[in-house]
């Protein structure tokens, strides 16, 4: 397929690379043009300096950008340039509100918009193992599913426009609680003088096992956080979650607490640390 791709950062760049390697014609755009040029040199793809050119004649336009306003800007620029009946796939984590707005805008132009946030982080993007939660027209999703499968291990249609974003919010709520629990478990084990490797071996095959435990226990124990999904990004996501909860009446006591804990990590200078840096906050509290 002829594909435009906006947002060649740590997630978008490997996703676009997978599309090229699968034989698709990909034109990439990034707000920081040097990133787009670098991606083109590394992959042999084509980079351009505007969204409009990237979207010109595209059957599919994929974006992985920063926030609601970025999505609004990119979609408004891309839609008029696409082929009639084209499909926009948005992998940005945004509000459900903007997803519905963009779906209406696309429909008015005779095109389709799929909100398709992902889970799996940078490693999932690099390895083509992302999980996609999609909202929007089911037939449009079916048309682009072979494209998405190039970098995804699972694609689930969640319902109408906005449903993908709501499902991603569920994902972030669950992660926030698991990471805080894991941080406290590591902190408790350290305070009790236990062998951290032995504790992991004892509990990681039982009911406490999780992806976070398997991938973050040892780095938490060593105080290593300079990698992974940044605290700034998680706070953006949890802000969307808490806004939606205020609108739908959901009670998210734990999520609000963890969001506050992440604010403390930011104040410690950990804005770009991995989300597992909740453990650093506990160590600081203990030292005090």
Number of DSSP E strands: 9
**Basic shape:** globular
- Average pLDDT across residues? 97
Portion in helices:
55-70%
Total count of helical runs of at least 4 residues: 13
Throw out a few tags for this protein:
single chain; 288 residues; alpha/beta; six-stranded parallel sheet; three-stranded mixed sheet; 9 strands
Can you describe this structure?
With 288 residues, the protein is α/β, with parallel strands linked by helices. It is built from 13 helices and nine strands. It has helices at residues 12-21, 33-43, 51-55, 68-78, 96-108, 121-127, 138-148, 163-191, 196-203, 211-222, 231-248, 253-267, 278-287, and strands at 2-6, 25-29, 46-47, 60-63, 87-90, 112-115, 118-119, 130-135, 152-159. The chain has a six-stranded parallel sheet with strand order 3-2-1-4-5-6, with helices on both faces. Strands 7-8-9 form a three-stranded mixed sheet. Strand 4, helix 4 and strand 5 (87-90) form a beta-alpha-beta unit. Helix 8 packs across helix 11, helix 8 (163-191) packs parallel to helix 13 (278-287) and helix 11 runs antiparallel to helix 12 (253-267). The protein is globular. The N and C termini lie far apart (58 Å). The mean pLDDT is 97.
Which secondary structure elements does this structure contain, and how are they paired or packed?
Blueprint: E1 2-6, H1 12-21, E2 25-29, H2 33-43, E3 46-47, H3 51-55, E4 60-63, H4 68-78, E5 87-90, H5 96-108, E6 112-115, E7 118-119, H6 121-127, E8 130-135, H7 138-148, E9 152-159, H8 163-191, H9 196-203, H10 211-222, H11 231-248, H12 253-267, H13 278-287
Parallel strand pairs: 1-2, 1-4, 2-3, 4-5, 5-6, 8-9
Antiparallel strand pairs: 7-8
């Amino acid at each position: 397929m002829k594909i435009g791709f906006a947002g060649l950062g740590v997630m978008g760049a490997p996703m676009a690379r997978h599309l090229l390697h699968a034989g698709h014609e990909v034109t990439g755009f990034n707000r920081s043009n040097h990133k787009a040029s670098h991606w083109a040199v590394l992959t042999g793809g084509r980079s351009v300096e505007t969204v409009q050119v990237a979207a010109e004649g595209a059957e599919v336009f994929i974006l992985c950008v920063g926030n609601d306003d970025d999505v609004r800007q990119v979609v408004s620029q891309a839609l008029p340039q696409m082929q009639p009946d084209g499909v926009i796939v948005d992998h940005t984590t945004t509000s459900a509100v903007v997803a519905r707005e963009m779906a209406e805008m696309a429909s008015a132009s005779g095109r389709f918009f799929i909100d398709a946030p992902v889970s799996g982080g940078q490693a999932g993007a690099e390895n083509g193992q992302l999980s996609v939660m999609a909202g929007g027209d089911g037939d449009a999703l079916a048309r682009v599913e072979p494209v998405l499968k190039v970098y995804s291990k699972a694609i689930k249609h969640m319902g109408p426009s906005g449903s993908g974003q709501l499902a991603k919010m569920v994902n972030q709520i669950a992660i926030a609680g698991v990471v805080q629990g894991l941080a406290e478990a590591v902190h408790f084990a350290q305070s009790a003088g236990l062998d951290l490797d032995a504790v992991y071996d004892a509990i990681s095959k039982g009911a406490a096992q999780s992806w976070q435990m398997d991938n973050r226990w040892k780095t938490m124990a060593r105080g290593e956080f300079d990698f992974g999904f940044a605290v700034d990004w998680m706070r953006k996501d949890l802000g969307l979650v808490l806004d939606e909860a205020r609108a739908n009446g959901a009670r998210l006591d734990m999520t609000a607490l963890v969001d506050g804990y992440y604010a403390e990590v930011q104040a410690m200078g950990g804005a770009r640390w991995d989300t597992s840096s909740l453990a650093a906050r506990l160590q600081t509290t203990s030292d005090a």
